[in-house]
Amino acid sequence: xxxxxxxxxxxxxxxxxxxxxxxxxxxxxxxxxxxxxxxxxxxxxxxxxxxxxxxxxxxxxxxxxxxxxxxxxxxxxxxxxxxxxxxxxxxxxxxxxxxxxxxxxxxxxxxxxxxxxxxxxxxxxxxxxxxxxxxxxxxxxxxxxxxxxxxxxxxxxxxxxxxxxxxxxxxxxxxxxxxxxxxxxxxxxxxxxxxxxxxxxxxxxxxxxxxxxxxxxxxxxxxxxxxxxxxxxxxxxxxxxxxxxxxxxxxxxxxxxxxxxxxxxxxxxxxxxxxxxxxxxxxxxxxxxxxxxxxxxxxxxxxxxxxxxxxxxxxxxxxxxxxxxxxxxxxxxxxxxxxxxxxxxxxxxxxxxxxxxxxxxxxxxxxxxxxxxxxxxxxxxxxxxxxxxxxxxxxxxxxxxxxxxxxxxxxxxxxxxxxxxxxxxxxxxxxxxxxxxxxxxxxxxxxxxxxxxxxxxxxxxxxxxxxxxx
Amino acid sequence: xxxxxxxxxxxxxxxxxxxxxxxxxxxxxxxxxxxxxxxxxxxxxxxxxxxxxxxxxxxxxxxxxxxxxxxxxxxxxxxxxxxxxxxxxxxxxxxxxxxxxxxxxxxxxxxxxxxxxxxxxxxxxxxxxxxxxxxxxxxxxxxxxxxxxxxxxxxxxxxxxxxxxxxxxxxxxxxxxxxxxxxxxxxxxxxxxxxxxxxxxxxxxxxxxxxxxxxxxxxxxxxxxxxxxxxxxxxxxxxxxxxxxxxxxxxxxxxxxxxxxxxxxxxxxxxxxxxxxxxxxxxxxxxxxxxxxxxxxxxxxx
Lengths: 470, 302
Description:
The complex is a heterodimer of chains A (about 475) and B (about 300).
Chain A: H1 3-30, E1 58-63, H2 70-82, E2 88-93, H3 96-106, E3 112-113, H4 123-128, H5 136-140, H6 159-162, E4 164-165, E5 168-169, E6 172-184, H7 185-191, H8 199-211, E7 215-217, H9 228-239, H10 242-248, H11 258-272, H12 285-293, E8 297-303, H13 306-309, E9 320-323, E10 340-347, H14 356-366, H15 369-379, H16 396-408, H17 417-420, H18 422-437, H19 443-459
Parallel strand pairs in A: 1-2, 1-3, 7-8
Antiparallel strand pairs in A: 4-5, 6-8, 6-9, 6-10
Helix pairs in contact in A: 2-14, 2-15, 9-11, 11-19, 18-19
Chain B: H1 5-34, H2 52-58, H3 61-94, H4 109-121, H5 124-134, H6 141-148, H7 163-188, H8 192-200, H9 205-216, H10 218-234, H11 236-242, H12 254-263, H13 269-293
């Protein structure tokens, strides 16, 4: 193959990418719904509340990312232990969307899909096309190994809300993630620094850190939305959870609320005073996190997956610790300890799966105490199952996550606009954060740009809208 | 023998034609059909919406922004690549000063030719990742060199003023080597006595290049132009891997917009198909225009 061919093919590939989708659509428009024929259903009993057909095969597709696929094989083994006649087809991929799109269109999707990673299928797209089975029955079913409690009773607060669209529980988010500001306990102990609880103290600390020759902050410049998390958290702690509800519900000028203005003004300080590691706007998440692990910067914003993501490059004794965002002042509606905790790592059962009952049962296995403990042991991440960390030895960072969650208690908060409208966070707020944290625009323009993004989603009639209660 | 001609021809032609029809033509045609629907990609439901997708497209600032970037690529990548390719090829084939009437390249021609061709051996993905590290603001080769000589070190891919130009430079870099070889081969085919004749007439090198080499290479340059123009309308792989269109959409291209609309932040396959259809016509018209504009009389050596 010579260069001409390569060029020609590159060019053709560009034009072909869409027609390739077109080919699939051809099947789509040609094929028709086969109805309920050929789905597996068993009789519901006390032992089998979801009506699983014992010998029905189950197909599970796992996102092969930071958590790998070994944990899923363990869950599958637990499933076959209960249903020895069932055969499980397991596969793992990094490209969930491209691998499964034709099968969704064709009406032959797998029974369990771990819809995660960069190749995640836009959840709004799936929900608005009624492609996901309702998991309500799962919530009501009794827990597998916690007698007397329903599955719903065993979950951490907020686990159900995150996966619910217009009141229907559609997406089972398996892990529990805490978002906060991370620092190295060792670095801070060596230098006798102490994590600041208020914003003014935080700025004073940044000044001290900079004077010591270390950059106070770094961030993922290529994915600057990481910095929107502490900023919005600051606003919610200042103005209360209604700040988040307004943003999620696309209320007019939700991004320009007083709380958001106060938070953006505060965060602008670290940009203005050059408290950010030089070159950060050109780093991706791995590069910035590695710079942070190397001690080139003191703070970084991330979720609780950070510890396992950085496992290979974290020096021994680094002792990473998560902390809540500093309070703006004494007028804050939520205490300093309040953190953003939310369920993540989405799993779905496609509505057209052959073995929907089996898929739900598989979730019940995952959400059993045994299944959750095994997951936490294998991948060092929390699950949405309450108390599943009992008796499991946790790595240093994850331990601080558990403590932060306990301290936060009922004051924990969350937002879901990123689930409702993937484009708003991934594209629009992301771009605005990039401009803001590299210092090219000020706080007012930043909020303007975010608001414009939110308005463009609100005005787009082709995007289905969701509302959530406060 | 004549008797069995048609069965033979047909049996050879049918398989490739069927494959072409199924895997190339039918997807093209279906893309046109999908572009007139609101298909969201994960169900069989696709309602016809007429030309609504194209109307949305007309007012979509992000699409226009991407198209503008493609236009800049279209204007600059072919010109720079061909100019550099011609310059290097000339140096390699007739840059030397060996003998009075001899036409030969600079010393070490064989080595240069090999080195220029290196990027062709690498896949585009490798090139993108390689350059991403070279542009690394703190530990990259480029900023390391700049710091060593005391110059300021920009953030390159992290700055909307430079990100797009960084990608453009990589595009030129990765293409130039092939055209050096292509033009070089074409120059070898030009009879030496023509050069010897004009050299006797006292023509300078610049005149030789402008009056002799380029006119005689015109066919090759034209082909290069079309390929590069098509490549400039794409640019998807480099942009997706190096900047994902950022910062703030400053390095976005139309191919990435299409991908993002279908597989990235949304699942609007109908709208993405409309972008694809627009891309198809743009590529087609650019190719036709390039052919037309470059049309000249063919010169044949006797």
